[in-house]
Amino acid sequence: MVSTAATPSPSKVSLGVRLGYAVGSFCTANFSTIPGLLLLFYMTNVLAVPAAFAGVVLFLPKAWDLVANTLVGRWSDRTVSRWGPRRPWLLAGACVLPVSFALMFAGPPLTGVPAALYVGVTFLAAATGYALYEVPYKAMPAEMTTHYHERTSLLQWRMVLIAVGIAMSGILAPMIAGETADGYRTMGVAFGVILLVAMLGSFFGTARAPFTGPQRSEGTLREQLAAARTSKQFLWLLGLSSAQTLGAGVMLAGAPYFASYALGDTSATTTLFAALVGPMLVTMPLWVWLARKLDKRGAMILSGTLFTVGALLILATPALGELYAHLCVMIVGIGYAGLQLLQFSMLADVIAYDGAVSGERRGGIFTGLWTAVENAVAALGATAYGWVLSVGGFVSSDPEHPVTQPDSAGVAVVIGVTVVPALITFAGVLMTFKYSLTADRLATVATGGTASAAAVSGSDGQHGGQHGGQHGGRSEPGEALRAED
């Protein structure tokens, strides 16, 4: 069991703990991917829900995330238990999410607006379970090690399993679901079981994880939210990550439409996803190396640029064919791999830095805000793509009553997965230039006894966690962070 007392700050995290933590990524990957990939298509093409209304229904439950994620973050920051502050919440999420996820796709025989309302309610319950799990889960890496580059290495394992999870979601889920209500019901139950196993696996797998974070969490919720809002580095990171998430969300929602209407092959959704996640399985060591050579900000700029260029190249698919489209998606996948790894490594840096200068444990507040915005933005991707389809005159249908789409709908399908996500992601690239929490800055941030450079960067493996957890506070939480920014 994990004690709530800080342990000496290791610069390395054991392989067993890395894998135990990483297995939880199946929850992150499956819940993030399947609703984004299939829920809009399920509603418009199986349940006969109008595209614009379906997009709104999928977005509305995310408004609840702004409340739920913030509360869960606060609660996990203040939790004291023999399991540590975060792990009890992993278990709570495992009790809620798998069941509600299965119910999303296993509803009564409804169509149109009643079907949309049922999906919306069950999606709300699933989002609540996801908040209980994901918010504390994302706060854990910042509390396992104080070393700047070790956080990237630790998260490398998480990203590899996320790639496997995305592959399962993007390849197996569409194959199981097909285009029938029974297929979607079977898929929901199957992946509900996978979610349960993954979430319990991470709970038990992190039982021996080191805890190097600050020991106290003081102040009101309003004060802690204010501290997060005054962290310029957190806000810039949240902004650039939101742009990346929105761009990926739009492309994700459009994938089955692109396969069906641009490539004329519904099964191409599977191969497109293989092209997307394949690079994630093999390029993670490359991105870890690039993060050391270019620093994380430079590597992030490179990854966002690759994503943008790959998306724009897909525009030529009608002229160059299906193989060309898959090659372009592989370029997108290389960039996406870097984006996924680096944004969470940078988030861990921001949390660790805040703990060092404030002396308080409030990583849950940061990850609560992060996850709430991330979920809302991801859902907005499906909403935005639904609006693009609506503008293009896309006609909803069900399997028994197929329709012929107008030419304008075909144009909207392609524009929605190319130009729209490319422009959004490029905006994220521009925002990355404003993020300045680099390795050098972290190593030289010590001022007036707030925290040693060793405590922030992890260069002193014996004392970094103790300084960050027990001796890192100023008289005013967050004062050094605001001054430094």
Automatic annotation (TrEMBL):
Could you tell me the keywords of this UniProt record? Membrane, Transmembrane, Transmembrane helix
Which Pfam family would be a valid example here? MFS_2
Composition-biased stretches (Basic and acidic residues): 473-485
InterPro entries per UniProt: MFS_2, MFS_trans_sf
SUPFAM superfamilies, A to Z: MFS general substrate transporter (SSF103473)
Q: Where is the composition biased (Gly residues)?
A: 461-472
Mind telling me which residue stretches traverse the membrane in this protein?
Answer: 48-68, 89-107, 113-133, 154-177, 189-213, 234-259, 271-291, 298-317, 323-342, 363-388, 408-433
Q: Where is this region: Disordered?
A: 453-485
Q: Which domain of life is it from?
A: Bacteria
Q: What is this protein called?
A: MFS transporter
